[in-house]
Amino acid sequence: MNEADVRIDRADSLILNALRSDGRLSSQELAERVSLTASPCWRRVKRLEEAGVIRGYHADIDPRRLGYHVMAFAQVALEKKDAAHIRAFEDAVRASPEILACHCISGRYDHQLTVIARTLDSFGDFIRLKIGTLPNVQEIHTSLVLKEVKALAHAAIEIA
């Protein structure tokens, strides 16, 4: 176990699962769902937040309903791997609303981006004119998402 790992018990697990399925539960609703009284439940939630287990509460938005019908992964290789060049690339990625996620990865590529676009043409323009011109980009490999089978927001985490 990593020193940063947080020990949780069955009640914590129930709280996390309940919040993952509905992050808008009131304190009272959450307490009832996990069979605790409100105060102990609230204290557990606060402890999980302070420990960084609960990182935030977010709306699960469907980009297709907003007109973004293309989702793709773009794997990017950088020319230079020093801290300043990596930071410049990552700062540019953070500033781009079309990039939903960015992960630093191992292997041939350095980063994997999750990108949305309204059309295939606009996706192509975005890759060529935006990603391709970001600081330090050497190579880009893209894969279109054909179907979302399981989203990260709905991922089940084994909580023992």
From TrEMBL:
This is Leucine-responsive regulatory protein. It comes from the Bacteria. Keywords: DNA-binding, Transcription, Transcription regulation. It comes from Paraburkholderia hiiakae. PANTHER family: LEUCINE-RESPONSIVE REGULATORY PROTEIN, TRANSCRIPTIONAL REGULATOR AZLB. Residues 8-69 form the HTH asnC-type domain. InterPro entries: ArsR-like_HTH, AsnC-type_HTH_dom, Dimeric_a/b-barrel, Tscrpt_reg_AsnC-like, Tscrpt_reg_AsnC/Lrp_C, WH-like_DNA-bd_sf, WH_DNA-bd_sf.
